[in-house]
Amino acid sequence: MKKTRLSKQGAVATLTLNRPEVYNSLDYETAEEFEKALREVEVDRRIKALVVRGEGKSFCTGADLKYFRIIQDDRSAGRNFVLQNNRAFDGLENIRVPVIAAVHGHGLAGGCELLQTCDLALAST
Fold this sequence. Notes:
Blueprint: E1 4-9, E2 12-17, H1 28-43, E3 49-54, H2 65-71, H3 75-94, E4 99-103, H4 110-117, E5 120-123
Parallel strand pairs: 2-3, 3-4, 4-5
Antiparallel strand pairs: 1-2
């Protein structure tokens, strides 16, 4: 995984959005990696909690608008992107462990939806 990172320390897993250059905005590949990491957490019975965070200056600014420009004329790609995001967010909402959003910087649009999907959000000033 390159657009997300999953680390485990004891009973806590941390899932980091790793696209700081675009304020951790979401494209298809990021949402896909996010969902795969959630499945890994789901099957690891040693994990008792999950922290979701963003690398760099922001938590998440939602959909990557540059990515949308690339796929704007491809209805199938747009539909697939929305469906993939839904799978990732649904997976987060239904995961067996409590999820904590560690919010700093921007949490906008889909990033706000992402943090609302978590059980608890802790935000920096």
